[in-house]
């Protein structure tokens, strides 16, 4: 038995729009089966994962906090992947951005004034872009595989962060805990709605995420630069004939996605955490890859996809508390989701037939 | 002293060599499986769980092999059956694998593992110097050597190996000649999973007989880089694996010698070395062009 794929003459827009929805449903079914295998009542577990986090104001705030970095990173990656450039190291660029942005509150803890946050944003983006520039340059100058280089730099960034918070950047008044000083109010992203009935912890990171998504959507679908990026990804030859420089595009999308990953790192340390610690990300840089694919590389759709994956983090934490389930299940879930998204994409582009034996071959 | 250093280098190199030799075969058939890390880590946890429960490291090894094959089966089903994007599917496999391994492994954190005992080969193991180093090793070391030689012979000295390479270079031509591209690629990917699973078993049965979350620590990715470094040739792969084993071990010996460098910098050495090696090897474009499987990473859907 094997599968026979026939390219569809025309890809239906409806199919394209429905594919991620189908993928989500398939993931939920597989998830329910996995819960049952693990001895959890599937309905209750799914409820704990996907409904409970949406039922209260404070948990919606948590959702926004987790969605913000995912959306910001995934917007950058969606541009990068459109060009068929594989930046897999957003996690490292996220950390590099967080480190760079923290330089101000670490070295100038008393700094105050309205310039502090914008300066941290600029530093964060520069840090992320610089970290991403390494694989970009090694790729374009020497042809080194960008997937592996960007990934190796994730480990290097994690070790660099570890070194800083245990060594030179450790809080001098922190009883030897491996963490920096807590950031002052001037270096902290404020809450969007701090008080009142709808008040909570969510900071301006989510607003930044929405602005970034909309602006990138315009860049990608309404400007020549966006066309250049997409064309380079779809048909490098055609792009060359059009006079577009593939190397320049590679560098551009790497710097772009790196800067956004760095921005996400800044948002996370300044908004959600308030200091640097040995570990500042539950794998946002990798999860954002799933977000980008679930959104079919559309920067606007990334907003919805980011919220969905933020929900899996939140659901995982909730299920750990209410059901005593391992929070590792979140990653299993995320992996299955990406599998389903990719498979559903095939169903949109191809007609899939199951062929028994080798009859199909003879007919060819 | 030198002997013990060489022994530790071998132990550090074996999992890299095992994982990379499997990936090399898969890539020669034109399939880029970035899920090595995920297959390896599930193999590692399966080996630990089964050997811990049964007391037999060899049953653990079998479980790891089966797990690796099953993981590769998911990948093959998607990338070959469904012609999905290989890069993204491989990443999904790694995320999935790390999640599964973390979940299964939670119950085993801090438990004592069952180590695999060395097997001394009679006569040979009594040779001076090389005897202890090469012929009194564990089964997985011998397996890595045998597999490397076998893969080299298979790829470049057998008809089946030629077919596999042709599928990786020109799938259209291979298809036109009546070769089953999908079947050959599936088998190559499954072999890659088998090897990655065994490589994972080496970590929990030989390297450090215990379960630590994320025990693979990027070794699956380094194995992928090794395949590029070796320009898709098995014997060069062995050289690369031992070089990397030496780099990994260098950090421990540097610490023991009291080198005053932050431990994090030493720990970053294997990753930095990987980047350096990738740059050096890729600089010569013609050399890489000649050796890279021409259809690497591209799904093949025959036009009927």
From TrEMBL, chain A:
Keywords: Cell membrane, Membrane, Transmembrane, Transmembrane helix. CDD domains: TM_PBP1_transp_TpRbsC_like. One of its GO terms (cellular component) is plasma membrane. It comes from the Bacteria. Its main location: membrane. The chain crosses the membrane at residues 21-38, 58-81, 88-109, 115-138, 147-165, 204-224, 244-264, 284-311. PANTHER family: ABC TRANSPORTER, PERMEASE PROTEIN, GUANOSINE ABC TRANSPORTER PERMEASE PROTEIN NUPP. This is ABC transporter permease.
Automatic annotation (TrEMBL), chain B:
It is a multi-pass membrane protein. Keywords: Cell membrane, Membrane, Transmembrane, Transmembrane helix. InterPro entries: ABC_transp_permease. It is found in: Cell membrane. Its main location: membrane. One of its GO terms (molecular function) is transmembrane transporter activity. The chain crosses the membrane at residues 6-25, 32-52, 58-83, 90-109, 139-156, 187-205, 211-230, 237-257, 263-281. The keyword Transmembrane applies. The keyword Membrane applies. It comes from the Bacteria. GO terms for cellular component: plasma membrane. PANTHER family: ABC TRANSPORTER PERMEASE PROTEIN, SUGAR ABC TRANSPORTER INTEGRAL MEMBRANE PROTEIN-RELATED. This is ABC transporter permease.
């Amino acid at each position: 038995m094997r599968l026979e794929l026939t390219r569809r003459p025309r890809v239906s827009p409806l199919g394209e729009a429905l594919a991620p929805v189908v993928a989500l449903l398939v993931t939920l079914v597989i998830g329910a089966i996995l819960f049952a295998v693990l001895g959890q009542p599937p309905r209750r577990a799914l409820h704990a994962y996907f409904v409970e986090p949406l039922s209260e104001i404070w948990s919606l705030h948590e959702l926004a906090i987790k969605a913000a970095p995912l959306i910001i990173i995934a917007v950058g990656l969606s541009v990068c992947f459109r060009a068929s450039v594989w930046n897999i190291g957003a996690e490292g660029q996220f950390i590099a951005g967080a480190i760079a942005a923290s330089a101000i509150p670490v070295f100038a803890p008393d700094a105050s004034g309205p310039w502090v946050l914008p300066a941290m944003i600029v530093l964060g983006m520069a840090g992320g872009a610089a970290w991403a520039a390494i694989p970009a340059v090694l790729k374009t100058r020497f042809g080194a595989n960008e997937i592996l280089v960007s990934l190796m730099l994730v480990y290097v960034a994690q070790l660099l962060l570890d070194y800083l918070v245990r060594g030179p950047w450790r809080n001098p008044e922190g009883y030897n805990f491996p963490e920096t000083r807590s950031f002052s109010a001037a270096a902290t992203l404020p809450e969007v709605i701090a008080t009142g009935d709808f008040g909570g912890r969510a900071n301006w990171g989510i607003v930044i995420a929405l602005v970034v998504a909309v602006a990138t959507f315009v860049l990608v679908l309404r400007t020549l630069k966006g066309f250049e990026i997409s064309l380079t990804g779809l048909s490098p030859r055609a792009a060359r004939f059009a006079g577009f420089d593939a190397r320049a595009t590679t560098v551009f999308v790497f710097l772009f996605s790196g800067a956004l990953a760095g921005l996400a790192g800044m948002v996370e340390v300044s908004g959600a955490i308030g200091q640097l610690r040995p570990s500042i990300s539950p794998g946002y840089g990798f999860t954002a890859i799933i977000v980008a694919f679930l959104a079919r590389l559309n920067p606007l759709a990334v907003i919805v996809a980011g919220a969905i994956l933020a929900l899996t983090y939140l659901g995982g934490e909730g299920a750990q508390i209410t059901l005593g389930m391992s929070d590792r299940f979140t990653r299993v879930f995320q992996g299955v989701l990406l599998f389903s998204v990719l498979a559903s994409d095939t169903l949109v582009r191809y007609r899939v037939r199951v062929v028994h034996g080798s009859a199909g071959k003879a007919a060819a | 002293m030198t002997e013990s250093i060489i022994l530790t280098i071998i132990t550090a190199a074996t999992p890299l060599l095992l994982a990379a030799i499997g990936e090399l075969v898969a890539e020669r058939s034109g399939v880029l499986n970035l899920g090595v890390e995920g297959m390896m880590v599930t193999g590692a946890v399966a080996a630990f769980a089964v050997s811990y429960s049964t007391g037999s490291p060899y049953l653990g090894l079998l479980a790891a092999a089966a797990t690796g094959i099953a993981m590769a089966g998911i990948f093959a089903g998607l990338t070959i059956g469904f012609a999905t994007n290989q890069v993204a599917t491989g990443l999904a496999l790694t995320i999935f694998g790390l999640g599964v391994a973390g979940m299964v492994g939670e119950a085993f954190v801090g438990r004592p593992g069952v180590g695999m005992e060395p097997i001394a080969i009679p006569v040979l193991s009594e040779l001076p110097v090389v005897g202890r180093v090469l012929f009194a090793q564990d089964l997985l070391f011998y397996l890595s050597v045998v597999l490397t030689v076998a893969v080299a012979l298979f790829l470049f000295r057998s008809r089946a190996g030629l077919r596999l390479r042709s599928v990786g270079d020109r799938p259209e031509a291979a298809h036109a000649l009546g070769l089953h591209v999908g079947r050959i690629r599936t088998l190559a990917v499954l072999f890659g999973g088998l090897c990655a699973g065994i490589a994972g078993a080496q970590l929990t049965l030989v390297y450090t007989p215990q379960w630590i979350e994320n025990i693979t620590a990027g070794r699956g990715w380094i194995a992928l880089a090794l395949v590029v470094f070796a320009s898709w040739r098995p014997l060069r792969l062995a050289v690369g694996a031992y070089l990397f084993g030496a780099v990994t071990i260098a950090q421990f010996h540097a610490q023991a010698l009291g080198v005053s460098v932050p431990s994090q910098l030493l720990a970053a050495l294997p990753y930095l070395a990987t980047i350096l090696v990738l740059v050096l090897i890729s600089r010569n474009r013609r050399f890489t062009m000649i050796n890279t499987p021409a259809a690497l990473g591209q799904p093949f859907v025959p036009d009927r």
